[in-house]
């Protein structure tokens, strides 16, 4: 069975919502059996100053977990999808501290990146999720 951008995006979201390393590992194994490569990595800090670090963490995690190869086009696809996801979160997070997880998933030429963040202001926390997709050949 083949998977399209919608299914790959759902996998990225599930990875971003995973609550422990054990759950991440279980999900990666489950998705690998279906031919979907996945990764997750924690992120956080003051939103504006953390954007570059979040993008870098996504690319490094994707390479480390074998989601992408160390090829310019694939690294760029993950970086672009991560920036797209962050741009969706920017209106809520601008000027605030954030903490959460990046989920990355790939099936054939579909790559999706989901960023799930808790957005803090004193004890009044907000949450948000951003999603980006790219196609690579």
TrEMBL record:
Task: Name the keywords, alphabetized.
Answer: Activator, RNA-binding, Transcription, Transcription regulation
CDD domains annotated for this entry?
HutP
Summary of the function given for this chain in its UniProt record:
Antiterminator that binds to cis-acting regulatory sequences on the mRNA in the presence of histidine, thereby suppressing transcription termination and activating the hut operon for histidine utilization.
Name the Pfam families on file.
HutP
Molecular function GO labels: RNA binding
Q: Entry's SUPFAM superfamilies? A: Hut operon positive regulatory protein HutP (SSF111064)
Coiled-coil residues: none
Tell me what this protein is called. Hut operon positive regulatory protein
Q: Gene3D superfamilies from the entry? A: Hut operon regulatory protein HutP
Q: Which residues form the signal peptide?
A: none
Similarity comment text for this entry: Belongs to the HutP family.
Q: Which organism is it from?
A: Thermanaeromonas toyohensis ToBE
The subunit field of the Swiss-Prot or TrEMBL record says: Homohexamer.
Its domain of life reads Bacteria
């Amino acid at each position: 069975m083949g998977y399209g951008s919608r299914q790959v995006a759902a996998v990225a979201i599930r990875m971003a919502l995973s609550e422990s390393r054990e759950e991440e590992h279980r999900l990666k194994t489950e998705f690998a059996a279906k031919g979907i490569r996945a990764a997750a990595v924690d992120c956080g800090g003051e939103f504006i100053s953390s954007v570059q670090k979040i993008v870098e963490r996504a690319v490094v995690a994707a390479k480390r977990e074998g989601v992408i190869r160390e090829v310019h086009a694939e690294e760029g696809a993950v970086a672009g999808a991560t920036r797209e996801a962050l741009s969706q979160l920017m209106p809520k997070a601008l000027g605030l501290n954030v903490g959460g997880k990046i989920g990355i998933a790939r099936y054939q030429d579909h790559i999706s990146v989901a960023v799930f963040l808790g957005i803090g202001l004193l004890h009044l926390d907000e949450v948000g999720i951003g999603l980006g997709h790219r196609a690579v050949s």
